[in-house]
């Protein structure tokens, strides 16, 4: 492995972990950073596979809650309801992701200009939603109705377009459907678990023949960096959005999108 590849993988892993659970689109950040660094990965597999680090970070933070849910399934209706809500919300993305995987990876992931535009547009959507005077009807994530969970899952499908943001799509959808900011972010955390595991497994299967030992080593570096940086974000995000809302993330998206467009126009990287 070249030192430059190691440093690039480390840097991209940090970006993945820091951005996966905030509404700025981790995929967009990793793909754009990789483009400007000249970092190449077979079928852009690196961007998806290092998400496992972020998955394990959120699993470790929520381990106790997940354990209690698991042991409560046989006897506790509330546990069964919440697990059913998460699985129902995951269903639309599972279907769309499986059907459109090749198109998403071979076409949408190869359009950095479109990614920048989606970052900017998503930033304005977040600014708009953050300023709406919404009255939440649902504030406890474990008590979301099944119909609400499914609708949030439909919103998540928009994030198949790189630059939209999986967490951003679910949070915006949840807020418009009557949730508060904190529980919307927390539901996005839980929904990320099956969604990201599914994306990881599908991408690993689809590209198993394109990966080499060197790719595995690079992915492992990105994985560890993503795990450590995601831990920091997951432990602090809920309190942050409760106090500050989503405007800071909106402005970040807009700035990154504009800088990305400027870089593409000037022909930097690639």
Automatic annotation (TrEMBL):
<keyword id="KW-0133">Cell shape</keyword>
<dbReference type="InterPro" id="IPR003824">
    <property type="entry name" value="UppP"/>
</dbReference>
<comment type="similarity">
    <text>Belongs to the UppP family.</text>
</comment>
<comment type="function">
    <text>Catalyzes the dephosphorylation of undecaprenyl diphosphate (UPP). Confers resistance to bacitracin.</text>
</comment>
<feature type="transmembrane region" description="Helical">
    <location>
        <begin position="250"/>
        <end position="269"/>
    </location>
</feature>
<keyword id="KW-1003">Cell membrane</keyword>
<feature type="transmembrane region" description="Helical">
    <location>
        <begin position="82"/>
        <end position="100"/>
    </location>
</feature>
<keyword id="KW-0046">Antibiotic resistance</keyword>
<dbReference type="GO" id="GO:0050380">
    <property type="term" value="F:undecaprenyl-diphosphatase activity"/>
</dbReference>
<dbReference type="GO" id="GO:0046677">
    <property type="term" value="P:response to antibiotic"/>
</dbReference>
<feature type="transmembrane region" description="Helical">
    <location>
        <begin position="6"/>
        <end position="32"/>
    </location>
</feature>
<dbReference type="Pfam" id="PF02673">
    <property type="entry name" value="BacA"/>
</dbReference>
<keyword id="KW-1133">Transmembrane helix</keyword>
<dbReference type="GO" id="GO:0005886">
    <property type="term" value="C:plasma membrane"/>
</dbReference>
<feature type="transmembrane region" description="Helical">
    <location>
        <begin position="44"/>
        <end position="62"/>
    </location>
</feature>
<keyword id="KW-0378">Hydrolase</keyword>
<protein>
    <recommendedName>
        <fullName>Undecaprenyl-diphosphatase</fullName>
        <ecNumber>3.6.1.27</ecNumber>
    </recommendedName>
</protein>
<feature type="transmembrane region" description="Helical">
    <location>
        <begin position="184"/>
        <end position="205"/>
    </location>
</feature>
<feature type="transmembrane region" description="Helical">
    <location>
        <begin position="217"/>
        <end position="238"/>
    </location>
</feature>
<keyword id="KW-0472">Membrane</keyword>
<keyword id="KW-0573">Peptidoglycan synthesis</keyword>
<dbReference type="GO" id="GO:0008360">
    <property type="term" value="P:regulation of cell shape"/>
</dbReference>
<keyword id="KW-0812">Transmembrane</keyword>
<feature type="transmembrane region" description="Helical">
    <location>
        <begin position="112"/>
        <end position="129"/>
    </location>
</feature>
<dbReference type="GO" id="GO:0009252">
    <property type="term" value="P:peptidoglycan biosynthetic process"/>
</dbReference>
<dbReference type="GO" id="GO:0071555">
    <property type="term" value="P:cell wall organization"/>
</dbReference>
<keyword id="KW-0961">Cell wall biogenesis/degradation</keyword>
